[in-house]
Specification:
about 450 residues; alpha/beta; 7-stranded mixed sheet; 5-stranded antiparallel sheet; 15 helices; 20 strands; about 35% helix; globular
């Protein structure tokens, strides 16, 4: 399994592709990159998602940075968006979130942030990687950096969400929601139950011990959340909440124990924000793999929908450039600029509960009020053929079949459906996503293109 180096950061299997040599090379390179952009003392914020290997990697990162003359603010086990907030509010030169996001337990990695709290964009990553590829100059014995431990940022994150005009805690508290929460024993356990209790919820915790021993495959998709769904039913809860290990994705289970659909996290938030603030003349940004419901909702309120390549930095950068009021990604990632330009499950929880409280109904009724689509997702490991070759072939074959977008892989928009295939930023696979009016037709769309891609492989047949 190769080391994954992309706009989404660096991740690999610990001890195999993610080794101490690799970690120190990239961290020292990031320190050099931060120093090159600063004229004074340099501080970098570091936080981790709770994985078993996170503490050892934190020690390596702290040593590499301090020996480079950089001051380190370690905020402990916390969500990636908490690191982003801390970088911005503490006026740090950058940040490192130690996480492999939704990848399994043997994986770990690092997400690198600029002084804005945003992830490094394409040009910034290219400059950073150039630094990482050069010999590093370390500080003299009397010029090494310092290490400070800060344990207040989880509470500050919660406080910043509760202070948002779009989140009215008193309204949510009156509903006294009964919520089952699954944090897969990672960073979410340190913050999600606390936020829910602040909002007056009766909280039933599942896998919230922050041990780093994942209770199931950590990607919050329906097949991995059957335990949560069953618990929602048995506890007669109003909803279930699942987050990934670094808490930037928010996925819901309705009161019937059914998946709400990760696509509908962002759709619900967009509807709530535009309904509350007014949408006329506003802009909403989502990536190319996100449900058409976002476009329909935006137009309902007079807002303009904009699409970007997949990747948080692509969405966030477009939002900042266009002054978008809300945005995100269909995998359950919500970005609210009123708080910060990062995918953030914590703000997503506040906004979803606010929308649900104001609706006066159930979560399934809230979803029924939105445009209805079904998404099917597949993935393929390619044998004997490069992903770029597959994408180029598919682009040529289907150039006249629908509206083709090649900003990120190949997306074909049909009048009543769409399909998007692209090389993953985080796994050595090609992802295939299709959306249509029914799950049957969405699955058929994905299967059709999986079969077609399979015929391109030399080993086919």
């Amino acid at each position: 399994m190769a080391l994954m180096v992309s706009i989404s950061g660096i991740r690999g299997v610990v001890g195999s592709t993610l080794t101490p040599d690799v970690i120190i090379r990239y961290v020292a390179g990031f320190g050099s990159y931060c120093r090159s952009r600063s004229t004074g003392p340099v501080t970098v914020v570091v936080g981790r998602d709770g994985r078993i290997t996170g503490a050892a990697i934190t020690d390596m990162i702290t040593s590499a940075l301090t020996m480079s003359g950089i001051h380190v603010m370690d905020i402990g086990i916390c969500p990636t968006p908490t690191v982003q907030l801390a970088v911005e509010h503490e006026h740090a030169a950058g940040g490192i979130a130690i996480t492999a996001s939704h990848n399994p337990m043997q994986w770990n990695g690092m997400k690198f942030m600029a002084s804005t709290g945003l992830f490094l964009d394409g040009a910034e990553n290219a400059e950073f990687w150039k630094h990482a590829g050069q010999p590093q100059a370390y500080a003299a014995w009397d010029a090494i950096g310092t290490l400070s431990q800060r344990g207040d940022w989880l509470a500050r994150h919660i406080g910043l969400v509760l202070d948002l005009p779009l989140v009215k805690a008193d309204v949510i508290r009156k509903r006294r929601f009964r919520v089952v929460v699954d944090c897969v024993n990672a960073a979410g356990g340190a913050i999600v139950p606390a936020l829910l209790r602040e909002l007056g919820c009766d909280v039933i915790e599942m896998a919230c011990d922050v041990s780093g021993v994942f209770s199931h495959t950590p990607e919050p998709i329906p097949e991995n959340l059957t335990g949560l769904a069953g618990r929602v039913r048995s506890e007669h809860a109003d909803l279930g909440i699942a987050v990934d290990p670094d808490v930037d994705r928010l996925v819901l289970i309705n009161e019937k124990g059914e998946p709400y659909g990760e696509e509908y996290t962002i759709a619900t938030v967009v509807d709530h924000v535009l309904k509350t603030q007014g949408g006329k003349g506003q802009t909403v940004v989502a990536n190319l793999s996100t449900t058409r419901a976002v476009d329909d909702i935006a137009r309902r309120y007079g807002a303009t929908p904009v699409r970007t390549p997949v990747g948080e930095i692509n969405v966030a950068s477009a939002m900042k450039r266009l002054g978008a009021v809300v945005g995100g990604e269909g995998s359950g990632g919500v970005i609210l600029p009123a708080l910060h330009y990062g995918r953030d499950a914590i703000v997503g929880i506040g906004l979803i509960l606010q929308a649900l409280a104001e609706s006066g109904g159930t979560l399934s009724q809230l979803k029924a009020s939105l445009p209805q689509y079904c998404i099917a997702k597949g993935k393929m490991e390619l044998a004997g053929i490069a992903p770029e070759e597959v994408l180029e072939t598919m682009k040529k074959r289907h150039a006249t079949e629908g509206t083709v977008n090649t900003d990120d892989g190949v997306k074909i928009d049909f009048p009543d459906a769409w399909v998007h295939f692209r090389k993953s930023n985080t796994e050595p696979i090609v992802r295939i996503i299709g959306e249509s009016a029914t799950m049957e037709s969405a699955l058929a769309l994905v299967t059709r293109f999986q079969d077609e891609i399979r015929t391109l492989m030399p080993a086919h047949g």
